[in-house]
Amino acid sequence: MDRNHLAAFQAGPPQTGESGARAQAPGSTEPPAVSIQGVSKTYDTGFQALRSINLTIHRGEIFALLGPNGAGKTTLISIVCGIAMLAEGQVLVNGHDIRRDWRKTRAQVGLVPQELSTDSFETVWRTVSFSRGLFGKPANPAHIEKVLRDLSLWDKRNHQIQTLSGGMKRRVLIAKALAHEPEVLFLDEPTAGVDVELRRDMWTLVRSLREKGVTVILTTHYIEEAEEMADRIGVINGGEIVLVEGKEALMRKLGRKQLTLHLHTPMDRVPETLARHALELSEDGEALVYTLAQDGETADVTALLQDLADAGIRFRDLHTQQSTLEDIFVDLVRDRT
Amino acid sequence: MNIHAVRAIYSFEMARTWRTLFQSIVSPVVTTSLYFIVFGGAIGSQINEIDGITYGAYIVPGLIMLMVLTQSTSNASFGIYFPKFSGTIYEVLSAPVSHYEVVMGYVGAAATKSVMLGLIILATAGFFAPLEVAHPVWMLLFLVLTAFTFSLIGFIIGLWADTFEKLQFVPLLIITPLVFLGGTFYSIDMLPPTWQTVSLLNPVLYLVSGFRWSFYGVGDVSVAVSLMMILVFLVIAMATVAWIFRTGYRLRA
After folding, report:
1. Are residues A225 and A282 in the same domain?
2. Buried b / exposed e across A216-236, counting CB within 10 Å, b at 16+?
3. Which residue among B86, B88, B93 places its CB closest to the CB of A83?
4. ipTM score of the complex?
5. B248 pLDDT exceeds 90?
6. A214 and A101: one domain?
7. Does the beta carbon of A109 lie under 8 angstroms from any beta carbon of chain B?
8. Mutate to test the interface with B, among A134, A176, A180, A185 (most CBs of B within 10 A)
9. Do A283 and A180 share a structural domain?
C-alpha cells in the first residue's frame, strides 16, 4: 500500500456517504483490492451457493459482508482465497487474476476462517511462523513477535494451542493470517462466540490494520459490528448481492427516523390543522408518530412543534427512534425471501 | 518455486515425527526386533539356508521393506488426512503453493522418516543376524525410491479417505497382505508353481526382491525388472496425485 493511501486515511474523519471511497480516489488508476465479476458457484450436491456475484472492494476500506446463515458469505470468501474452485466468473485481487496469477494473489491475501481449526499440538510461535513460510515469506522473528504482542499472545508463544481458550485460539488464527503481511485480509465471522473484551480488541486491531493500508473484508451477522467498523456494507442473501452501499448512505437511505409524541389527552383523529405534516395517530390514540424524511434533513420539526402548540396539543413525553442497520437488514432480507 | 513453503511443510511434518517419537520410530523398531527374535532366531534356526543365506539374514531386507511400506503409507496418509479432518487444510489451500510443492513437503517428510526408520531397523538387525550389504548404493536407492513411492501412495490414501476407517483400510487390508505375500519371509521358489505365478502379480514382490538383491546379490526376479517396476509405481502414483490436484478432488469444493 502506498503513501497516498495512507495520507487519504489520515486526512480526516470520514465524510458521510461512501466513506469507503475515500481510501481510493474515484479517478484512481490503481486496480481495486478485490474485483468480483459474474461469479456463480454450484456445489456438486447441486446447491447453488452464489448467483452471478458482482462486487468491488476498494483498497484500504473496511467492507462488511452481511447475510444470514447459508447466504453464501463463506463460499464467496473461499473462492477469492483459493479454497473453493472458481468455475464461473472472474476474480481479481489487486488487478491480478486469481486463476492465472494465483501465486501473486494468494500471497497478498490473508484469511481468518470461521471455524477454530488449529494444530492442537503445535506451539503458538511455531504455528504462526509456519504460516509465514507457507505464504512464501522468509523467516522474520521480529514481525512474528510484533504480531503476537499486538494480539496479546506473546506470553503464550510457547504454549501448545490445545491449552488455549477459544478466544485465544481465535487470536492465533488472526496471527497466522497476519504472519505474511497480507494486503487484503478476510475475516470470516471474526467475533462469533467471542467475549466483549476480545471483540473490542478485534475492532481496534482491524482499525489499526486499515491505518497501515490493509483492506479488510469481514463477514458477520452481528450488525453492531458492521455498524461499528465498516466503511461500506454489502448484503448477501440467497447467493445474491442484495445491495452495496456506504454505511452512512445506507443508513440515510433506508434508515427511518421517527418522532413519537405521547399525548396528554388521547385524541380520535389527527386535527385538520396538522394535515400538512406526515402524522399518524397510534391505535390507542395516545401518541402521534411523525416519520422524518429519510435523509433526516428536509424535515421541518420546528414547524411541526409550532403547529402542535398552536393547536393547543400538549404532550407529556417525546422520543425519537432511528432504525439500526439490524432493522434495515431484517427488512432487506425479508423483502427478498 | 515457493521454497519457504516447502521448508515450512517439511519441517512441520518432521516436528510431528519428533513429537510422536515413540509411535513413529520406537514402536516399529521394537516390532521388528520381535520378528527377528521369533522368525530369525527361534524358527529360523530350524530352517535351511535359502540361496546360501541363513534364514535370519534372509528376512532382514524383507522386514525392512515391511516396515518401510507400512510406515510410509500410514504416516503420509495421516499427515495429509489430519489437516483435512481438523480443518487446518484451509491454510495450505489458500497459500501460494503449487501441488508439487505441497507433495514435496508432505511426501518428502514422510519419505525421510521412512528412510531413517529403514536404516535404524537395518542397524538393529545387526544385533540379530550377520549383516552384509553387497550393493550399498543400490540398497539406498531402492530404499529411497520405495519410501518415496509408498509415501506418495499414502498421501493419495489420505486425500481419498474421508473417515478414519478408510484411512486404516488400505494399509491394513491391502498393503500388509501384499507385503506378507510378497516374499518378505520366504523365496517364492518355496511355493507351488501356481502360487509362484500368482505371486508375480504382487507388485510388492518386485520391491522386496530388488532390495534383497542389493544385500545378497540374489532375488526372485532380476534387479532390472525390480527397478523398472518401482519406477512404474512411482509414475502411477505421481500421475494420480497430479489428477487429484488438477480436479480438486476431495480437496477443493
Report:
1. no
2. bbbbbbbbebbbbbbbbbbbb
3. B93
4. 0.86
5. no
6. yes
7. yes
8. A134
9. no
